[in-house]
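Task: encode each sequence below as structure tokens.

Item 1
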Amino acid sequence: MREARKEARFCESTCMNRCSWFNRFAKAAARATGKPMAFILAAATIIIWGVTGPLFGFSDTWQLVINTGTTIITFLMVFLIQNTQNRDSDAIQIKLDELIRATKGAHTALLDLEELEDEDIERIRDLYEEIATKSRQAMEAGEDDTGTPFVHIENASGNHNEAHLKHTRKTAARRARKRASR
């Protein structure tokens, strides 16, 4: 209960009273139902229900009570859990976006990556899997696997060979200018 009050105060102070009553309730309910005491209470309810079966002759009403109760609780908990999960996911995504934004040399095209189409995300994942494969091969050959390899992230549309050619040409042109200036 103390944690729920702390969470509500934190929410009020950080959100400047913009947190809805539902968010405060969902946070408190998620924390409370995630505690061992909530499990013990649920288990005790089931045990009591089972023990009272013979008293009620295992009647339809006796079965209906537990079925109705668990259905209602499950139905409501789905929404509370989904709300908490969405909020946590959004917060983690924002934190990751901030880390990407603040890291020098990071691809800011990865910001808001979750909004891309599945095919684009798959292409970007393939690029990073390729880097991981090359790093593992380097390690097996006794080489260093650290560093910041170039990633053609700016071309998520799929034509990676063209992006590589552009990068190679730019690099070659840069080297040629450096040599010419010496």
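Item 2
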Amino acid sequence: MSAVEIKESAGIYTLVWEQEGIGIRLDRLMEDSKYSVTGEVLVRLAGRHIHQARMNLTSTRGRADVVRQCKSRNAAEHVDWDSFIEEAAMVVLERFRAGEESIDFNSYTPPPKSKFMFAPYLLDGEANLFYGPGGSGKSYLAAYICAHISKGYTDEEGFEVPKSKVLYLDYETGPEEIYGRLQTVQRGLKMDTTPEVIYHPSAHPLASEIEKLQRLVVEHEIEMVVIDSVGYACGGEPETASNAINYYNALRQLQITTLSIGHIAKDKTSTSPFGSVYWINGARSVWEVVRSQEAGADRFDVGILHRKINNGPLSMPQAYRIAFENEAVFFDATDVKFIGEAEEKMPIKERIIFLLQEHETLEVKDISSMLERSEGTVRKTLHRNDVFTQFKSSDGPTLWSLKKTLPPGTFDDEDEFGPPSGVN
């Protein structure tokens, strides 16, 4: 009996004895209140299907039943099925019960700071969230990101980023709409118009489908998943904390980059998704999407405001003009300060920076008037942020301006009202 090669990914265990040509896969593992562990086992020999069943890994009888089936289905070949099934069960049981590996910080070297799968929106290997009102352009932004990741692209520093497999979980529309959206976006990006995305229609809560999704991730070598949208995927009222927690716990089992799409709270002034604060807490990077469009226009502007990131500074606000023309969708970068709906939601510090970039120098009273905020609020923000500097003008009044060079992390701290609702 040769040494076994073991692979574990997204809760799926694959064991291969290459010399004997035997492969065993175990997934959908569950432990009950009596500490019995059961899972689905798939047995193959030389690429041929031998047996598939649910097996109790902790039961002698359960393992014996699988051995008996394998022997009856492969009587012509003398295979020591007892040894293979026993080793598979014991190895997987040990790893399953071990859970996440503990880390000794004495010998631990932290990885580099947050690496992006698609900068600045997606942290690699983490849960990312876009939220905004219905029709704000979230799904088009998701298609824009999917197109780049699935086709490969050149990043801002000129490096070629190879293509990665993308899975799109759709709770709202159908394959025709998602296919068409991807196709028009890719046409606008001058890419091959055939989408290279795995589409999966979903109607059940994410947590109840996680084993199926784990298989899809492993079988298709998926590296990024889009969930559109969390309101349907969470399995209940989004206002309930347990639904948000269960959603993120399930999502984490995929162990890859994810982009969840959520909706804004009913209060239009809110800066968090509707429902529980855990929708913000559970994601590692959170962006709010705000749209502006004139009635009847074939284009609209969308502002994307960074609300939260773990272990790093917030990114500068982003903005695009999205235009529809000749069965193509075009994304052109624009300035977020020209999108009134987005600018109003930005922290006062960022709004002051934009004003001073435009006017160079201003008095506190002028800033207060333009932003419709109290002079006390403006003065406090100016004094507590070192990106601003003051000086006496020749005719007397104190003027404020930006320092010549904005330091790294300019937008990494919050204004005097604290972080957006729900951010900790």
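Check on item 2: The longest strand covers residues 299-309. The chain has three domains: 5-98, 116-342, 347-402.
End of task.
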